[in-house]
Design a protein that fits this description.
InterPro entries: Ig_E-set, Ig_GEX2_N. This protein has strands at about 10, 20, 25-30, 50-60, 65, 70, 75, 80-85, 95-100, 110-115, 130-140, 145, 150-155, 160-165, 170-175. It has about 180 residues and is mainly β.
Length: about 180
């Protein structure tokens, strides 16, 4: 018979509905006719082979969602499906650092704060505290001075702050993120 979307059944493959950003999600749709019978590829076999529509897509936006599946302006049975997407791994090239200073002019040994918005490759905030390696670079000579005593603090999910002291006419260079075990 013909496929009737309102009686077709949609579900997650493996009943898994939680994914990491960048991973592949798979939905299975069991095709059914108007009487709720599975659509068979052939009726000559003792055990018919039912048709299943497979939908795959890459999830990129983190959050909790309801995924509504429709066919022919009709919502499929089992829809909406819950969908939870967690941020991917932190991507240092996507992280955004913002400098906060007490005054517009920094003096030797003045306190500075750098807020780091920790993001994955899709721009989702990544929770957790990820210490950075940092060094100070002399503007004129490009010589580097490593900074050993940075103080890290997570101020909210996905946003960390580094406290450091200004070192005259030098600039801060933030290197790789070190994952804590």
């Amino acid at each position: 018979g013909n496929v009737y979307p309102s009686v077709c059944v949609a579900s997650w493959k493996g009943v898994k509905y939680e994914f990491e950003a960048g991973s592949k999600a798979t939905i299975m749709v069991l095709l059914k006719d108007a009487f709720g019978n599975g659509i068979s590829k052939t009726r000559q076999l003792k055990y018919p082979i039912y048709l299943i529509l497979v939908i795959q897509f890459i999830v990129t936006k983190a959050g909790n969602f309801s995924l509504r599946i429709e066919g022919g302006n009709q919502t499929l049975n089992g829809s909406p499906l819950p969908l939870k997407v967690n941020p991917g791994v932190i991507d240092v090239t996507k992280c955004v650092a913002k400098l906060k200073i007490e005054h517009h002019v920094c003096h030797l040994s003045s306190k500075m704060e750098i807020f780091i918005h920790q993001l994955d490759q899709y721009g989702n905030l990544v929770s957790g505290l990820y210490p950075f390696d940092a060094e100070v670079v002399e503007r004129d000579t490009n010589l580097t001075i490593p900074i050993a005593d940075l103080h890290f603090q997570e101020v909210e999910a996905g946003n960390s702050v580094i406290f450091l002291w200004q070192l005259g006419t030098r600039k801060l260079h933030i290197n790789n993120i070190r994952r804590q075990a």
